[in-house]
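Hi! If you just cloned this repository, the fastest way to understand the data is to look at a raw example. We've pasted two of them here, unedited. The first protein comes first, obviously.
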Amino acid sequence: MIERSLFNEEHELFRATVRRFVEKEITPHHAQWERDGIVPRELWLKAGEQGLLCCTVPEEYGGLGLDYLFDVVVFEELWRAGASGPGFLIHTDLVATYILSFGTEEQKRRFLPKMVTGEWIGALGMTEPHAGSDLKAIRTRATRDGDDFVINGQKVFISNGQHADVLVCATKTDRDAGAKGVTLFLIEGDREGFRRGRNLEKLGMHAQDTSELFFDNVRVPASNMLGSEGDGFSLMMTKLSQERLAQAIRSATVAETIIEWTLDYTTQREAFGKTIFDFQNTQFKLAELKTQATLARVFTDKCIELFMQGKLDPVDAAMAKMYTTELHCKAADECLQLFGGWGYMWEYPICRAYADARITKIAGGSIEIMKTIIARAMKSEHDRR
C-alpha cells in the first residue's frame, strides 16, 4: 500500500500525544456526551493545556506557531476514534483562521490567546433558515449607529453555538448590494441581545452542540468588524478551499477507519461455518472500498500539500470534498450491511458513524454545489482552448 509521506517524526510524536489524550479524556465519556447533546467546557480547557487547539497560531498570540499538519493530526485522531462531538475543527480551522487572516492586531491579541487555551470557544455564524449555500441571501442586518453597529437577525445550524464565546458572524450592511453588502463581525457571546436558541436534535453528531442563534439589537463597536465593510463575502470565499479540504480530511480518515472496523468484525464473526470475510461478497466489497479509500487518501494528501504551499485550487478542493464525502457515506452504508443486525445497534461504532456520515455531503457546501463548481471550471477550460 502507498505510505503517507506528509508527516515527519515531530508530527508523529505529537500524534501519539493526541491519541493518548483522546483515549483518556474523550473516548470513555463520548457516549454520555451524546446523551447530553453537548461536550463539557472542561474538555476544551484540557485540550488547550495539551496544545491541541489552534496549533498554527503564532507564539505572539499565545499559540505554538506550528505548521498546519499539527492541526491535521488533531482532526484525524478525533475522527479515527469516532469522536464527532468536540467541535475543535470549527474553532481552530475556521474561527481562529478568520481572525488570524483578517483581524486587526487588537483583535488578534484579544481573542486568539483565549482560544488557544480553550477559555473561549469559537463558532461560525453564516447559515440562516433561508440561506445555506447561498450566503449572498443572508438577512441578518448590521446597521451603523455612530461608532457602533446594531445587529438583528437569526442564524441556524451553528456548531459550538451553545458554548460560543466569540462568533464570526456574517451580516448585511447594505441589503441592496448583493455580495458586496456582506460584512463580517466578531460578536462576543455575552453581548446584550444575543440569545442562544435550542440545542438542535440531529440525525447524527449527537455530542456536538448545534444551535439557533438570535440577535435582538445586539450592539457591537465598529472595531469588532472583521476586515472592511462590504468585504465579508470575498473574505468567506477565500476560506472555502480550506473548509472543503478539512471535510475531505475527515471523510478520508473516517472511510479508512470504517473499513478497518469492518475487516476486524468480519474476520471474527462466523456464519454457516465460516467467517463473514470468507464470503466472496465481503471480500469484493472491502477490496473495492479499500481501493477507493486509498485513492481518496492520496488525492487528499496532495491537496494538503498544495494548501500548505498556498497553491490549492478551489476546484481541486471541491473535487476532494465531493469524492471523499461520497465515499464516506458509501463506506458507512456498505460496511454497516456487513455487520448485519449488530450494525444497527447504537452501541456499535459503525452505527454512530453511519448517522454521523450523512452531514458530510451537505456541510461546507453541498455535493451539488461541488459538482457545479467542477462543471463550470471544465466548461471554462474548454472555452479557452
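Ok, and the second one:
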Amino acid sequence: MARFRMYPTSEQEQQMLLHCAHARYVWNLAVEQHAHWRRDKAHHRPDGKRTGAPSFAEQCRQLTEARAASEWLRAGNQTVQAQALKDFAKAKAARFTSGFGEPTWRRKHVHEGFRVIGDDRVPEYVPDGRPLINPKTGKQVMSRAVTVQKLNRRWAQVKVPGCGWVRFRLSCKGARLPAAKTFRVTLKNGQWHAAFAVIPDPIDKPGTGEAIGIDRGVTVTAALSDGRKLNCPHLTARERARIRKHQRRAARAEKGSERKTAEYAKVARLKAKEANRRKDWCEKTSTMLARSYDLVRFETLNIKTMTATAKAKPDPDQPGQYLKNGRAAKAGLNRGILAQGWGLLRQRTGHKAPGRVEDVPAPYTSLRCSACGWIDKNSRKSQAEFVCSSCGFTCNADTNASINVAAGQGGIPRPRRTAGAGGATTATSRSSAREPQPTWAGILLS
C-alpha cells in the first residue's frame, strides 16, 4: 500500500462522508443477511433444491433493487456501493486464512472509508514487453487504472466519484505517482487518507555479501549486530502530559456531552501522531536494511502471544472474586511492545527485500555468549550488560544477542548444568530437556 494524506474541500468532504455511510450501510446489510442464513433453515427453490447464502452476483442484483426503492441509497455512487459488497465477499472467502474470522459490523465514526475502482483504461503487457492478447477476441487486454495527476513535486490529485479531483500530498519530494487499479479512502482522527493498492518494487541487494542480525526489544527497539542501536520515536514528555490532561478533562465531563467527545478527539489525534511516526520510522529503517545488506536476519517472535491479556485467576476462598495476577503490569508491557513496531519492521523489510530476510528461532539467543558459545542465564547481568560466566567476554546484551541472530544460531543446544573447560556447549542431558517457561521479565530482557 502507498498511503497519502488527502485535503478535500468542505463540499468534497460532505460527499465523501456520504460515500462512507453508503459503503458501511451496504456492508452491514450483507453481514446481517449472512448472519441470518443457516444451513438447516435454507430456502428452497421451486425445484426442491436448497439455496445457499447469496453470492456476490446475487447481492449486486439485490443492491440494484434497493437503490430503486431507496432515494437515499440512490443518491450515492453505485460503484462505491458495489465495491463494499466486493470487499465483503473477499473477507467472507478469506475468513479462515486472514486471521480476522467472520466479517463483523462496521460502526459510524470508527469504520469510515470506501473503495474506489479506477475508471481509466491502460493496455497490459507480458514481462518481455509484448502486448497481452485475449485469446478469445484477439485484442489487447485493457486493465483498469486510477486517474491520478501530478501538480508539482509536493502535490497531486486523484479523481473520486462524485467529488471530482481531490488533492493529496506526496510523501517526499519527487515521489512517483502510484500506478494502481484501486484505492481506498479512509477517515480517521479527522484526517483523510488515500491508500493505493500497489506492489512496491524490490530493492536490489548491494552485493557485498554482508549479513546483519537484528535483536528487537522494548528498551532498544532494534539492536544491530554491527553495534548500532535504533530506537522507534515516541511522543515527547510534553505530548504525553497533554494526553493525560485531555483524558482527565474527558473523565470529568458529562457523559455524552460535546466536551467529552472533543477531549477524546484531541487524545486520538496525539496518538495518531505517534502511530504516524512509528510507521515512518519503520519505512525508513526497512529501506536502509534492504539497501545496505544482502541478508537480514530477525529473531522469531510471536507478538500476538507475547501481548496477550493476563488470564484471570479465580479466588477459591471467595466465589466471584479474583486474585491479583499483575494485570496492570502486563498491560504496560503490552503497550511497550506494541509501541515499538516489531511486526511492521519485519513485514516491510520482507516486502522490500524479498528472499533476503530470514527468521532465526529466538530461544537462548540472549543467553548465549557470541564469543565462546557458552549458555548460562547468570551471564545476563542486567538488561544492558552481558558478562560470560565461562570466558569473561563482556558486551552489551542486545548487541550480543544480535550477533547470535546474525550467525544464524537458532538451533542452539540447551545449556548444561555445569560449565566445562573452554565453555563450549554440547548436547543437553535428559534432566534439562524441558525448556523453561518464559516470564515477563525475560521478555523485557530479550
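That's it. A detail worth noticing about the second one: Confidence is low (pLDDT under 50) at residues 419-446.
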